[in-house]
Amino acid sequence: MSKVVLSARKRERSGSISARNLRKAGRVPAVIYGRSVESLPIDLDAKEFAGSVKNITESTIVMVDVDGQFYDAFVKDTQRDVRDGNILHVDFYVVEKDVTMRAKVHLLVQGTPIGVRDGGTLELPLHEIEVECLPKDLPERIAVDISGLKANQSIHVRDIALGENVKLVSSGDQVVALVKFAKADTSAEEEAVSASDQPAAAAATDKK
Hints:
Layout: E1 5-10, H1 16-24, E2 27-34, E3 37-45, H2 46-52, E4 62-66, E5 69-80, E6 87-94, E7 101-110, H3 114-117, E8 121-123, E9 128-133, E10 141-145, E11 154-156, E12 167-168, E13 175-180, H4 186-207
């Protein structure tokens, strides 16, 4: 996937009134900052931003062009209007190319487990893991093939194949996917039915 490039411009004014006017003009107020970058108020085209970030994840690094100055950054936070879902504000966090970083990466589960085809139920308790690496080695998503899972089997974080330069931070004991298969206890059901019939049978015998 090619890197998303977002065009932005410096904001000369701040405050709620200025932000409201920007939104009316089809712009989104934002801020870009980082460990070695002083916080800089910016704004972006609302439609361009909404269209460009549809398929990115929390670990996707985008390029922000601020009046010709380029920054590699994460979309750290996106605030939306609870009524209509429109974007109200965006936070960008600048990454440093040669500095190791930590980030949460989305897990992309692929395949239909054997156990599910046999009647089992699939559970996916974990949707992302935390890793450590250089920005250039950071995956946008990590694919996890679950097609080989049989009934009562599971895949743990430690089973996930990471890139050579990517270090796992999350606990390896966490379960990513499991297939549960509860067999019906026929003997127990039969005993329960038999027990429920006993009073009726006894009552019938008494009447005789």
